[in-house]
C-alpha cells in the first residue's frame, strides 16, 4: 500500500515541482498584436560565431554589384580567380575559406583594444558584397570582369558622406595575386592617376613575362600572378619611387630580376631584414617611402608568412605532431620557407594606419593545402580585421582633425567680429 501511494505522489502532476528542463509554454503562440520591427530585430537579429550564413564577420550580405541602391563605405568583395598561377591552384576557394575563418568576429565582440574601437559598430557602413562571378575559362574575359567590377563598386557614392570619405573602399579576398592588376586599373581611373603599392609577399611579382620560359608564347600567357605588377608598371598604374615590397625571400632568375624591379621603382625589404630592423624599423622604412597622403593600394600575399614554424619540443619527438602544432600558413600556392610570423605581420600592419590606403587585398589563400585547424585562413581573416580597423581608425581621426580645423576657423572668425 505504501509503495502504491508513493508512486502516485511521485507521478502526480500536482505534486511534481517544475524544473529547468520543463517546457511550460508560457508563450505558445505569437501575441495577437504583432511585434514591431524593432522588437523582431531585438529578438532574432543575432548570430553566434558558429551560426548564420557564412559572410565575413557576420556582416550584412548584399550583392553590391547588382544592388546599386545599397550604399556602403567599405565593401568586402571576393575574387575567386586562380587560373593564372605558376604552381599550385586552389585560391579560388580563398574567399569562402576566409569568410568561414572570420566567424568569431562579431559586432558584439569586435572591439579592437589596440585601437580602442569596433569597426563593425562605427559610423561607417561595412557590407559583404559577395563575389565577382569570374569565369574560370577565359583569363582575358576574367580580367575584364574584375576590372569592371572594381570600377563599378569603387565609383559609388559612399554611405557616410564626409569630405574625408570621398569614395568607398574595397577589401578584396582572393583569389590568386593577379587580381591586383584589375584593382589597380580601376583605382587609376577613380583617383585620376597612378597609386603607390605596398606589397607584402615572398616574391617580387614584377617579373617580365618572358622570364617564364616557353616555346609557345602568347599575349594571354603574359598575365600571371608573378607578372601583374610588371604589367601595371608598364601601364603607368603604379607610382614609380613611392612603392615598396616587404617580406621578400624567394629564389630569382638572376640579378637582373632586381634591375627590372628597380626600374619599376620599388623599395625592397627582405624577410631577413626584420632581424636587424625589427617591426618598428620595417614600419618606419615603409612610411618614409610612401608617406601619409599618397593614395596607396595594400596587397598582401599570405605567402609572406612562414608556411611551417617547427620547434623542438621536449614533450614530443613526432615530426607530424610538431608540424601540426607549429604550422603557420601552409595553405598557399607558392610557399617559401623563412617567412614572418603572423604576430610580426599584424604588428607591422598596425603601425601603418596613417597610410592613405584606398584599396586592399588578401590573396593566395588556398584552403586545400591548409591544416585541419584552417590556420592560414584564420590569419587572413585577422589581417582583414586589422585592415578594417585601420581604415575606420584613420577615418575617425581625419574627421576629428577636420572638426578641429573648423572649430579653430570659427573661433578665429568670432575674434575678428569682436574686433
Q: Can you tell me about this structure?
A:
The chain has eleven helices and eight strands. With 419 residues, it is α/β, with parallel strands linked by helices. An eight-stranded parallel β-sheet has the order 2-1-3-8-7-4-5-6, sandwiched between helices. The protein starts with a helix and ends with a helix. Mean pLDDT is 86; it is low at 310-325.
Task: Give a quick summary of the entry.
By secondary structure, this protein is of the alpha/beta class. The chain is built from 11 helices and 8 strands.
What is the topology?
Elements: H1 2-11, H2 37-44, E1 74-79, H3 94-101, E2 126-131, H4 139-154, E3 169-174, H5 180-190, E4 196-200, H6 228-234, E5 243-248, H7 256-263, E6 266-270, H8 273-290, E7 295-301, H9 319-326, H10 342-350, E8 356-363, H11 375-418
Parallel strand pairs: 1-2, 1-3, 3-8, 4-5, 4-7, 5-6, 7-8
Q: How far do the termini sit from each other?
A: 106 Å
How is the main sheet built?
8 strands, parallel
| Count of helix runs | 11
- Beta-strand segment tally: 8
User: How would you classify the quaternary structure?
Assistant: single chain
Mean pLDDT: 86
Poorly predicted spans: 310-325
Encode the helix/strand succession as letters: HHEHEHEHEHEHEHEHHEH
Structural class: alpha/beta
Radius of gyration: 26 Å
Fraction of residues in H or I helices? 25-40%
Strand content: 5-15%
For the largest beta sheet, what order do the strands appear in spatially?
A: 2-1-3-8-7-4-5-6
Shape verdict: globular
Amino acid at each position: 500500500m505504501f509503495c502504491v501511494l508513493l508512486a502516485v505522489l511521485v507521478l502526480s502532476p500536482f505534486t511534481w515541482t517544475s524544473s529547468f528542463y520543463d517546457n511550460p509554454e508560457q508563450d505558445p503562440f505569437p501575441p495577437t498584436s504583432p511585434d514591431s520591427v524593432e522588437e523582431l530585430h531585438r529578438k532574432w537579429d543575432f548570430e553566434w560565431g558558429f551560426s548564420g550564413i557564412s559572410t565575413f564577420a557576420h556582416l550584412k550580405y548584399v550583392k553590391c554589384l547588382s544592388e546599386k541602391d545599397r550604399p556602403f563605405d567599405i565593401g568586402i568583395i571576393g575574387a575567386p580567380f586562380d587560373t593564372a598561377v605558376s604552381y599550385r591552384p586552389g585560391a579560388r576557394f580563398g574567399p569562402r575559406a576566409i569568410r568561414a575563418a572570420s566567424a568569431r568576429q562579431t559586432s558584439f565582440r569586435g572591439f579592437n583594444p589596440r585601437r580602442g574601437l569596433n569597426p563593425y559598430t562605427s559610423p561607417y557602413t561595412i557590407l559583404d558584397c559577395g563575389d565577382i562571378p569570374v569565369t574560370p575559362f577565359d583569363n582575358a574575359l576574367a580580367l575584364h570582369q574584375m576590372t569592371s567590377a572594381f570600377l563599378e563598386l569603387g565609383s559609388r557614392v559612399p554611405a557616410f558622406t564626409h569630405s574625408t570619405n570621398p569614395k568607398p573602399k574595397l577589401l578584396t579576398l582572393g583569389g590568386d595575386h593577379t587580381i591586383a592588376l584589375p584593382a589597380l586599373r580601376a583605382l587609376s581611373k577613380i583617383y585620376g592617376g597612378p597609386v603607390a603599392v605596398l606589397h607584402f609577399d615572398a616574391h617580387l611579382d614584377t617579373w617580365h613575362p618572358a622570364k617564364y620560359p616557353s616555346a609557345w608564347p602568347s599575349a594571354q600567357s603574359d598575365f600571371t600572378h608573378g607578372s601583374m605588377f610588371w604589367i601595371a608598371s608598364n601601364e603607368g598604374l603604379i607610382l614609380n619611387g613611392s612603392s615598396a615590397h616587404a617580406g621578400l625571400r624567394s629564389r630569382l632568375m638572376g640579378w637582373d630580376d632586381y634591375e627590372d624591379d628597380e626600374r619599376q621603382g620599388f623599395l625592397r625589404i627582405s624577410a631577413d631584414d626584420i632581424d636587424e630592423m625589427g617591426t618598428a624599423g620595417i614600419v618606419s622604412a615603409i612610411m618614409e617611402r610612401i608617406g601619409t597622403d599618397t593614395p596607396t593600394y595594400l596587397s598582401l600575399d599570405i605567402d609572406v608568412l612562414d608556411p611551417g614554424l617547427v620547434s623542438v619540443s621536449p614533450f614530443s619527438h613526432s615530426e607530424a605532431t610538431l608540424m601540426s602544432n607549429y604550422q603557420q600558413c601552409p595553405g598557399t600556392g607558392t610557399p617559401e620557407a623563412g617567412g614572418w610570423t603572423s604576430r610580426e605581420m599584424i604588428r607591422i600592419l598596425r603601425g601603418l594606419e596613417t597610410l592613405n590606403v584606398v584599396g586592399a587585398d588578401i590573396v593566395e589563400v588556398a584552403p586545400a593545402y591548409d591544416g585541419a585547424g584552417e590556420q592560414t585562413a584564420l590569419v587572413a581573416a585577422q589581417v582583414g580585421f586589422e585592415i578594417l580597423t585601420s581604415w575606420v581608425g584613420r577615418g575617425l581621426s581625419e574627421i576629428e582633425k577636420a572638426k578641429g580645423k573648423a572649430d579653430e576657423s570659427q573661433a578665429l572668425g568670432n575674434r575678428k567680429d569682436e574686433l
